[in-house]
Please model this.
Amino acid sequence: MKIKTIVAVDPDVKKSGVAVLDVASKNVTTYAMPFPELIDFVYSFPDKESVRIAVEAGWLNLKSNFHGYYGNRGERIAKDVGANQETGRKIVEMCEHKEYSVSLVKPLEKRWKGARSKITHEELEIVLNGLKMTLNKKRTNQDERDSILIAIHEYNRL
Model:
């Protein structure tokens, strides 16, 4: 069966960014959800064959804890990265357990104008307009923006 919906997830220990892309209409809806709510949300899609779950899989990077910081700050960042990656692994495990189609997406290149080269909302709007996609919000947080980029990446792979 053809994929009708892409659910893209940028895993986070507290609240993961989630983007839902309706393939036909190109409408994008975003959320920030804690793990249990996210799993319930994914399980609310009854037609498993028409949904693709795309999860950022930072653990696929050969070097995932280097951020240019040293000492306590570097250790904290490495710990947070590891915790977020484990959340991603658990999301994948729970989706596969219920037999959803899951795609692992290596972290995308950060080449934007925002802090630490992350995408700003304004840049995201330009990208979405170029793809003739619509977004349900006027403001988004970084996790939501990253999940939208994952959804776009997965859309381009269909």
